[in-house]
Amino acid sequence: MKKTLATLVCLGMILGGAPAWAEPGDLIIEEQEIGKGGEIIIIEEEGASLEALEKQVELMAEEIDGLRDEVGTFRRNVNVTGYGETHLKMPMDERTSEFDAHRFVIGINAKFNDWIFLNAEIDYEHAAQELEFEMGYLDFLLDPRVNVRAGTVLIPVGFLNEFHEPVFFWTVERPQIQTRVIPTSWNGTGGGLFGTFGNVLGGMNYRFYVVNSLQSLRPVGFSNGHGAGGNQGQFTGSSGIRSGRLQPDEAIASDLAVTGRVELPNMVPGLQFGMSFYTGDTSHNFIDSSARTTLVEADVKFRKRWFEMNATIVNIHINNAREINKFNAANNVITPGTSTTSQVPTNIFAWNLQAGIHLFQLAKVATTHDLVLHGMYERIDTQDEMPIGSAADPSQEADVFTGGVAWFPTPNVAIKLDYTNQDRGNNTSSQEVNLGMAYMFF
Questions:
Q1: Sign (positive/negative) of CA torsion 163, 164, 167, 171?
Q2: Could you give the angle at the alpha carbon of 145 between the alpha carbons of 198 and 194, nearest 5°?
């Protein structure tokens, strides 16, 4: 019995330190020594109660089991996700070849209960030299048809902005229509509704949000919401609305925007059709005129066995672009990276078409690998129409062809090689070979 008592006491001390729960009448050890066999021998004891001690140890064991359960629940309800990509860019002119650890993204998906979920991502770009808060929002799941989303959300424009992980597209770099025209990745802070209607045209998905608006012009000295790795808070003639994005660190919200997307993923077998819009004043009271910016977009994706294609068309109209340019001239607001005054267009237009052949499937090779031979044509014009008093820059009109191959040893890993030729409206051109690796985990 003495050995049993001593062993239980030692177990309690190891698990919980000194037995602060000891009460009068419980075991009190006055002196102890180690026997020849290594066991602890009680020399003196007073009021020993085996039953009370065993009960305390059992309670401690139950507490430890409870902690284990809590840890297990945490692991089940919190999931770490992420993705990344690294590129080797090899221009075929006097420009220098370079490596770029383009992005590494860490995300958290958390389940608070059966109907409240968190999704958040932090983006480390260019070998962690730039930091961006990509998204962080709560989903309140009420009904498959109507749910609520609130926080910093990805703008639902096009099929790539919300699902822009690099294993979801074949090219090393994102298509130019998704960078120079639709500014992927593009977020906004606000909230709205989303859901699915399963009985409409084989199923219809939708998202509608109200968010802080883009910023089309930037007064001298303005610094709100730029963020590390953020943008300038102004539209330009070369990047269109892309630089009008701002990180949500005190991003100005004098103007709000409404955005939404509708998808028909099962209209016919293998065919998905989508439409998106975005509209909002972007002047934020920096000028007296409204600078309403309206984007409309349509896209289609189709796959039948080994053949797959997608296409996108986008139009952006900027109201009172002439007043924006007058403000830029009066305040000497220049296009970032240049010494010229920023000239904002009235209209931006672009479209693209991409097709791919899944070679292993075409050759009827029994494998889980995927090897895609692909080609894409893009027509980009970030100065499709200019306001009175501003001339279009022909170099901003471009025909872009990209062709290459992408190998997926598993759906979440890709090795990509492609070639891009860009012909501009000012009779200049450039060529580039790109090699990239991409991955996604969850």
A1: positive
A2: 115
- pLDDT grade for 248, boundaries at 50, 70 and 90: confident
| Nearest residue to 393 (alpha-carbon basis) of 176, 235, 228, 237 | 237
The H or E element spanning position 361 is helix 359-362
d(CA 25, CA 329): 89
In angstroms, the CA 283 to CA 316 distance is 16
Residue 64 vs residues 12, 16, 60: alpha-carbon distances, Å: 12, 10, 6
d(CA 227, CA 250): 9
Domain boundaries, the chain: 2-69, 70-441
pTM: 0.82
Between CA 30 and CA 45 the distance in angstroms is 7
User: pLDDT at position 17, please?
Assistant: 44
Cβ atoms 5, 27 nearer than 8 A? yes
Distances in Å between the Cα of 133 and the Cα atoms of 110, 137, 150, 216, 382 are: 17, 11, 15, 21, 27
Tokens 């999931």 sit at which residue? 79
Cα–Cα distance, 84 to 225 (Å, whole number): 25
pLDDT above 70 coverage of the chain, percent: 81
- Say if residue 114 is exposed, middle or buried (CB neighbours under 10 Å; 0-12, 13-18, 19+): exposed
Do residues 309 and 186 lie in contact, with contact meaning Cβ atoms separated by under 8 Å? no
| Cα gap 77→56, rounded to integer Å | 31
Q: How far apart are CA 213 and CA 255, in angstroms?
A: 6
Class of domain 70-441: mainly beta
Give me 198's structure tokens. Answer: 């399963």
pLDDT tens by residue, 36-48: 444 444 444 444 5
Q: Helix (H, G, I), strand (E, B), or coil: what is residue 213?
A: coil
Q: Are 213 and 255 in contact (CB under 8 A)?
A: yes
Residue 330 burial (C-beta neighbours within 10 Å; 0-12, 13-18, 19+): exposed
**Residues 66-81: tens digit of each pLDDT:** 766 666 665 679 999 9
Q: DSSP 3-state assignment of 390?
A: coil
Please name every residue paired with 311 in a beta bridge, in sequence order, or none if there are none. 300, 353
Q: Are 327 and 287 in contact (CB under 8 A)?
A: yes
Alpha-carbon distance values, 285 to 70, 254, 282, 292, 420 (Å): 51, 7, 9, 12, 41
Are the CB atoms for 320 and 209 separated by under 8 Å?
Answer: no
- The pLDDT value recorded for residue 15 is 40
> CB of 425 within 8 A of CB of 396?
yes
